[in-house]
Amino acid sequence: MTYVLETRSLCKSFGGIIATDNVSFNLPAGARHALIGPNGAGKTTFVNQLTGVLDPTSGQILFGGEDITNWTVRRRATAGIARTFQINQLFADLTPLESVVLAISEREDAGGQWFKPLGAREDIVVEACELLDTLGIGDVREARVGALPYGKQRLLEIALALAAKPKLLLLDEPAAGVPESEREQILNVVARLPESVALVLIEHDMHLVFRFAKTISVLVNGALFCEGTADEIARDPRVRQVYLGEEDVGHG
Amino acid sequence: MSMTQPTKPVNDAGARLLSGARWRWYEVLFWVAAIALFFVFGDFIPGIPTRLMLLSEIISLGLLALSIDLVLGYAGIVTLGQGAFFGLGAYVAGLMAKNGMGAFPLSDPLLGLLAAAAVSGAAGFVTSFLVLRGSDLTRLMVTLGVALILAELANQMRWLTGGADGLQGVMSSPILGIWDFDLWGHTAYVYSLVVLFVCFWLSRRIVHSTFGLSLKAIKGNALRARAIGVPVNARLVAIYTLAAAIAGIAGALLAQTTQSASPDMIAFHRSADALLILVFGGAGYLYGGLIGAVLFRVMQDVIGNITLQYWQFWLGLVLVLLVLFVRGGVIGLMEGWWNRLTRKGDAP
Q: Is B24 contained in some domain?
């Protein structure tokens, strides 16, 4: 079986602190996977290595069977790895439409187009508008991003990632900090993501995890603690002890 | 629950994006005014002395500030060294014209401009890699350092540059073999204005393109820009190189129209002045540098007439007030007024 994503004995240390400890991880196509673990388990560090923001100390990362360990962020993005950030990373002074048009243009290799005015590629504008509509933020597409409510900014995070038509989407706490009233909209968007996209959800919120994930990996102290289907993990007493025990599973 | 909400028609969005690149009435007004200055100060009206040489100098300064706007106002690279490329362009054009003895091809002003753009652009390309990494402070220091090195080289290479005396007798041949530079600056002004407009037009195309949008994105959030596939470093190298080439053209203009090149043109204060002019006029509008240059020289003249010694004091004061209380310099100020004026009747 070929995997969308594989890591082989991935290690990352900062000085004496081991943030990623020998992680070998496989993700099949179309996966709905969650990466969970207590605070400081190294989830975001792991994601940063997958996207190329951090270089691993040792080990390998394969994407579609190809070794991408030494690829740049941009090359991985172009190849089909997209992510959302735990803390919004948006272009505050642009509009959602401009942001998404840029993301699509870069995917289409038209981002370096310096002579034609912005908006000259009608197909790109149409696609951008449709994407924003799908995510339910079409109504604010020409507002300043920095002035949008937090929930809409979170949706734009996802829109920017989807604009790349990724094969793998890493969602880093997509609903973190979103008020309850705007939360359902984000959850719906996540639920509707196309099957062709392999999804890795990095989450803290167990409700979100058990709602979407079919399979789960638990990361503890940088190492893979255990893996399994959502049911298996939910029933696993060790997981309950190290992780779920700390969380109030039943709330909400 | 339906995710799709009723929105404005899609083609409307495309048209709105495209309209960002359309010429506005106030832009047309600006360029008409620039042409009108030729007739007002061109010694055509009795009683008004000719000021075309001063106006040509303002154009050169404005073009330098425009080149800083491209890197600072759009791509977010702070620079204190743009004067280096300006001075380099001045020396290249000056040396060519001087050695050409006022004859084609070496003394041809347009070829001089192209050579200045090429040399300054090449210098910009090489040094651009130094500003890719690091914070604003690092960039300030690196650009300043490069400028100081070039200024000292120009000063020391006396055999080439004439040292502290500079290059004298820089004589250009007639433009396109037709228009000779005259004493009153008629040719100089029209020539400078045309060159300014061409550079401006090119810059304007660029900032309104997808490329220009990607620069704003990099300025706003380089981390995210990389994540959506923007080749951040390549874009920064490209715009820094282009801006250096334009600064070189600005320097060449000054050398050709004043018929000299001097260490003053490559000195540090030129970089500082130009940066100040841009911030004063408003960064990120393209017009900020041009309007700033006009106001800067007019203020210098007016305040200088009242109190010769303290003009920089008043300049400093105005600058501090502007930066503290208005975002976007003089243009930002005018924009704010305009918005307040036009929004009065509108529904929110």
A: no
In sequence order, the 6+-apart residues with CB closer than 8 A to the CB of B198 are none
Specify the pLDDT at position B344. 54
Question: Which residues of chain A make contact with B239, given a CB cutoff of 8 A?
Answer: none
B216 in contact with chain A, both atoms CB, cutoff 8 A: yes
In angstroms, the CA B213 to CA A172 distance is 26
B37 located within any domain: no
Contacts of B343 (CB under 8 A, 6+ apart): none
Q: What is the side-by-side strand order in the sheet with A81-84?
A: A81-84, A168-172, A198-202, A32-36, A215-220, A223-229
Task: Tell me what the mean pLDDT of segment A211-226 comes to.
Answer: 91
Contact B229 A111 (CB under 8 A): yes
Nearest CA-CA distance, residue B308 and chain A, Å: 42
Residues of A in contact with B211 (CB under 8 A): 111-114
Neighbours of A45 (CB within 10 A): 18
Nearest chain B residue to A133 by CA distance is B4
Flag if B229 and A78 touch (Cβ within 8 Å).
yes
pLDDT in tens, B164-195: 889 888 888 899 988 888 888 899 999 999 99
DSSP helix/strand/coil, A68: coil
**Domain at A66, CATH number:** 3.40.50.300
Domain that holds residue A230: 3-89+165-246
Q: Give domain status of residue B268, yes or no.
A: yes
Are the beta carbons of B280 and B295 closer than 8 angstroms?
yes
* Full DSSP string of B287-345: SHHHHHHHHHHHHHHHHHHH-STTHHHHHHHHHHHHHHH-TTHHHHHHHHHHHHHHHSS
Please list every residue in chain A whose beta carbon sits closer than 8 Å to the beta carbon of residue B205.
Answer: 114-115, 117
pLDDT tens profile A176-201: 888 888 888 888 888 888 888 999 99
Is the CB of B224 less than 8 angstroms away from the CB of A89?
yes
Cβ–Cβ below 8 Å for A126 and B228: no
Task: For residue B4, list chain A residues with Cβ-Cβ distance below 8 A.
Answer: 133-134, 136, 138
Query: Looking at residue B314, which CATH number applies to its domain?
Result: 1.10.3470
Secondary element (H or E) of residue A14: strand A3-14
Q: What is the pLDDT of residue B14?
A: 85
* Domain total of chain B: 1
* pTM score: 0.89
Residue A116, Ramachandran bin (φ over 0: left; ψ between -120 and 50: alpha; else beta) = beta
Residue A53, in any domain of the structure? yes
The pair of structure tokens assigned to A126 is 């149409």
- The span from the CA of B290 to the CA of B282, in Å, is 10
Residue A55 located in a structural domain: yes
Asked if the structure places residue B1 within a domain, the reply is no
For residue A170, list chain B residues with Cβ-Cβ distance below 8 A.
none
- How many domains are contained in chain A? 1
